[in-house]
Design goal:
Layout lengths: L4 H45 L3 H19 L28 E16 L10 H7 L19 E3 L3 E4 L3 E8 L4 E19 L7 E24 L2 E22 L4 E24 L3 E26 L9 E7 L4 E18 L3 E17 L5 E4 L2 H22 L6 E15 L1
Antiparallel strand pairs: 1-3, 1-4, 1-14, 2-5, 4-5, 5-6, 6-7, 7-8, 8-9, 9-10, 9-11, 10-13, 11-12, 12-14
Amino acid sequence: MKRHPFQNQLSISLGRIVLFSLFLFFSIGLRSQESEATKLELEALELEKAGDSAAAESKRLRVVQIRKKNFYREKTYSYSRDPDYLTHPFESGKQPFFGGTWEFGVRGNNSIASFGEVTDWLHKDGKLAFQAGDFFFPRSTVPYQNGSVLPVVEEPKYLSSKLPSYFFSYRHDSKKWGFEYSSLPFQSSFSHYAWGLVGPFQFANYETRFRMQDHRFVIKIYEELTKDTWFTWDFGIRAGNWKTDSSYLSATLGQAGDLKEQSRYLAPSAGFRFYHAFEKIMRLEVGGDVFVTPLGRLDYQRTVTKEGGFGSSGNSLDRYAIQSNKPLDMTVVGIDLSFIYSILLFNQHRFSLGAQSTSYSWKANESKMPDFYAANTDAYGTAVMDWYKSSGVYEADGNGKRSGRYFGVSNIFIGYSYAF
């Protein structure tokens, strides 16, 4: 049966009256007891002034009992931080072998490589400008070789890659040492363009592919800070390489070419990690590494086809190649930072979400005469002139007279590993 609106309003009003009456009843009782407590406090002060400390203390105890009864409520729950319930961050697996616990896993990576602004023209260095025969000799952002044949270059500063990677780790049963391996691959392709500054319209089109592989292997020394917070010293080896293949074509200049290069390095690394466990299944990992080596190596080759090269008529085609005779010495400095949050299910299945950032700063020492390959003597002369114009620029790169080359790779990943 449908209720009359007046009945609903009456019910609401009665409810309000009941709540107000309850509040009034309890507040009156609380006020009277608080008044009694205040009165006892004043009496205690008077007794204390009169020198009767024992009676004053008795009244103060009575005040404490009154207020404790009014305001204190015992907790009916408890939050346990029993050490037996907590776990340290490395407890995983059920079937250890070779004296320890192993984890093998894969990661799905979403990586972005950012390249530093290194377009350093030669108008600031008259000697290099004279040797190059031009005040505008821009340096490529991604490749080592100065691939641009025109001064105004549009190169991307960011590349992306989504290649998977794998990793594994081992922890000895003594919980004193272990080791860990991880890798990060990267591959991307892009197109860019170059234009001339003066004279008739000049244009060049470039196609470039960049590939990189980074390997990290470290020995871990474990230190226990608390049961659920650990610290590790990481000492190991960092190895990697990056490779660039670039082709260009300029119909307005009558010129085309291919540029290839590969850099390799092997470096000692040192770093640390903090591990913190949350209850039974969660772990947080934060840390970093530094690696430095003068033992990097760089190989390069460029093949060029030009119309009317050095000492030849304008209708001929000159084909030549310039290739490093021996690998160039290369110095690499890097820093790696990482953050990983993981959940371990059933003590064997670890799911992780992480972020990683690796920065590389490097330079190659161009001080060795390359090899020249040419179809004829005219093309050979063109190759020598090409090398002479650019060699000063490469040497300036190696001895630090131009700004250094650097790039960084930022990676966000989701991983899964199986703990034996």
